[in-house]
Design goal:
With 269 residues, the chain is α/β, with parallel strands linked by helices. Helix content is 19%, strand content 27%. It is built from five helices and 14 strands.
């Protein structure tokens, strides 16, 4: 397997192993394994998009995530960009829906989240780039856009500082809205960012939204990039769902999508 430029789409059950490789998996593979961390990732709610049932999309999302949480608790939830659709006046209302989640949650800015850094922090209480630590895991949340909605590379200087700060952590998980590898028409070829990540072997996975029709896993330089389709908006996969991630005691990951109430595309990393 050429790890330098390995690109693969996962469509069935799969596992993210401790060495960064992705293999097919079945439920029995994980029946006796202990989950040490469990979180959910979703993106692209597009609250306020004309001619869509955006309020229902948000209500359905929070209901289904809470339902999963009651069965097997999440440590947190991440909403990975395009929370609103162009109008910053919707930002606080969108937040009120997420406040119904029964677990902590984090957000990133997408290209439709047209807010200034000051407006963003006023609503969410965090800057556009920020970090979170839970046990031996570090989580980095970064913007890939701006007030005008441009497609941007993640902030390499900020990520460089944080990757160095957490280089002794067992795992680093990264969340950015726009895919920083040019796999799709809507991605960005962020070569400097890609090169930066390749220097840190504890980068466990990168999560991106933006591409509503993408629901799999692609790998670049040995790092898995995970898509989660969409939970709102007017295009994309036929379902509106979210991704669940379960870190195991052996540092492998079981991950799958909910579409939104049935488990699909199970994978291990």
């Amino acid at each position: 397997m050429n790890r330098k430029e390995f690109l693969k789409q996962i469509s069935f059950a799969s596992i993210l192993l401790a060495d960064g490789s992705v293999i097919p998996a079945f439920a029995s593979d994980f029946s006796n394994k202990k989950t040490t961390l469990r979180f959910v990732v979703a993106s692209d709610g597009h609250f306020g998009q004309p001619k869509t049932e955006y309020k229902d999309f948000f209500d359905t999302f929070t209901h289904n995530v809470n339902s999963q949480h009651r069965q097997h608790k999440f440590d947190f939830c991440v909403i990975n960009g395009d929370i609103i659709h162009d109008d910053v006046n919707f930002l606080a209302t969108a937040k009120s829906h997420f406040d119904d989640l029964e677990m902590p949650y984090f957000v990133t800015q997408g290209n439709h989240d047209h807010a200034t850094p000051e407006q963003w922090e006023r609503v969410w209480g965090v800057p556009l780039n920020y970090d979170y630590v839970l046990g031996n895991n570090a989580f980095l949340f970064g913007t890939t856009s701006n007030l005008e909605g441009k497609y941007l590379s993640p902030d390499v200087e900020w990520f460089s500082q944080k990757l160095e700060q957490y280089k002794k952590k067992k795992n680093i998980f990264i969340f950015v809205h726009i895919t920083p590898v040019k796999w799709t028409d809507n991605g960005v070829d962020a070569k400097e960012f890609q090169a930066l990540l390749s220097k840190y072997k504890n980068v466990k996975a990168v999560f991106n939204g933006h591409d509503h029709d993408q629901e799999g896993i692609k790998t670049h330089e040995g790092i898995p990039y995970l898509f989660d389709s969409h939970f709102g908006g007017n295009w994309g996969t036929s379902y509106r769902g979210f991704r669940i991630v379960e870190l195991q005691k052996d540092n492998s990951i079981l991950t799958y999508l909910m579409n939104p109430t049935t488990k699909i595309n199970e994978a291990t990393l």
